[in-house]
Specification:
By secondary structure, the protein is an alpha/beta fold. Helix content is about 30%, strand content about 25%. The model has no long low-confidence stretch (mean pLDDT about 90). The structure holds 1-O-phosphono-alpha-D-glucopyranose.
Length: about 300
């Protein structure tokens, strides 16, 4: 089995109920941070890490995602005729090599583990990455690239990890770790969405994984875990005692939980401020918005 990681799975089958009504007709992964959809950030991170095959686990109502990675000849012609060269360049970000993208449908929503299992035939007998596009990570060296670098030395299975507030542990896969060497820690146990009182720590799994095909075999048993769903965390935990150890990787970077409204808004502010062309005007607005002496009236919600 080669040690190179060239395939990444993007589970994108969820309803995105937290963003209804927008997600009634627009997949959550197409929602933009400034002007780039969440999925574009995930793809760019995968590319930077050397991924060349992109596997999307989708569901009904997600065809906008397929269109996003397709060519758009009418649009390109119109931009060319209008000599909009920089916009043509912008569109290039969405170009994917022919045959590099595969879509597989998860017919029933049975959990993250089940979604990844749906891609098993496309993954085959190789180590692979999983990226959850909800978790957007702003980092000098993209998170998955940091992990691959470390994975090359230690192999096995690896999950991205960071500390979360104790009261939020029940929203995450939580790790019990032993000794750490640099950024990597040996995992002794992991539990999906524990109650605060049962959590072994406040070190949470964040949506970046490098996994061995053995994890897919563990998913074959289809055992339901937390929330009655087939959990990826449980399938990875099944490898802890085997020789294919599990490592947690403490990445350098800032993670935004774009699966929640608050995290999504925070990411919008952070990525908006990072844009030279927006920064000054946006900063001025933000300053006045929080200035209690001259408050900007809140926008009407509905
Ligand atoms: C998933 C995983 C969980 C992980 C989290 C990170 O949960 O099941 O282990 O900690 O992503 O974002 P979800 O957010 O899909 O409920």
């Amino acid at each position: 089995m080669s040690n190179r990681v060239t395939k990444a799975v993007f589970p994108v089958a969820g309803f995105g109920t937290r963003f209804l009504p927008a997600t009634k007709s627009v997949p959550k992964e197409i929602l933009p941070l400034v002007d780039r959809p969440l999925i574009q950030y995930a793809i760019d991170e995968a590319r930077a890490a050397g991924i060349t095959e992109f596997i999307f686990v989708t569901s009904r109502g997600k065809s906008a995602l397929e269109d996003y990675f397709d060519s758009a000849p009418e649009l390109e012609t119109a931009l060319q005729e209008g000599k909009k060269h920089s916009l043509i360049e912008t569109l290039r970000q969405t170009d994917m090599d022919s045959g590099a993208v595969a879509y597989i449908r998860q017919q029933e929503r049975r959990g993250l583990g089940h979604a990844v299992w749906c891609a098993r035939r496309l993954i085959g007998d190789e180590p692979f990455a999983v990226i959850l596009p909800d978790d957007v990570i702003d980092a000098e060296t993209p998170c998955l690239e940091q992990m691959i670098e470390s994975y090359r030395e230690i192999g096995g299975n690896m999950v991205a990890a960071m500390e979360v507030a104790r009261e939020n542990v029940s929203s995450y896969g939580i790790l019990d770790v032993a000794d750490s060497v640099g950024s990597t820690m040996r995992v002794r146990g992991m539990v999906e969405k524990p109650k605060v009182e049962n959590a072994p720590s406040n070190l949470a799994v964040i949506g970046r994984y490098i996994l061995t095909p053995k994890v897919l075999e563990n998913l074959d048993s289809m055992k339901a875990g937390a929330g009655g769903e087939i959990q990826l965390t449980d399938a990875i935990a099944g490898e802890i005692s085997s020789s294919q150890n599990v490592h947690a990787f403490r990445f350098k970077g800032r993670r935004f939980d774009c699966g929640t409204k608050s995290g999504y808004l925070q990411a919008t502010v952070a990525f908006g401020l990072a844009r030279d062309e927006l920064r000054d005007e946006f900063l001025e607005f933000l300053r006045s918005a929080v200035d209690t002496e001259v408050p900007i009236p809140a926008a009407r919600a509905v």
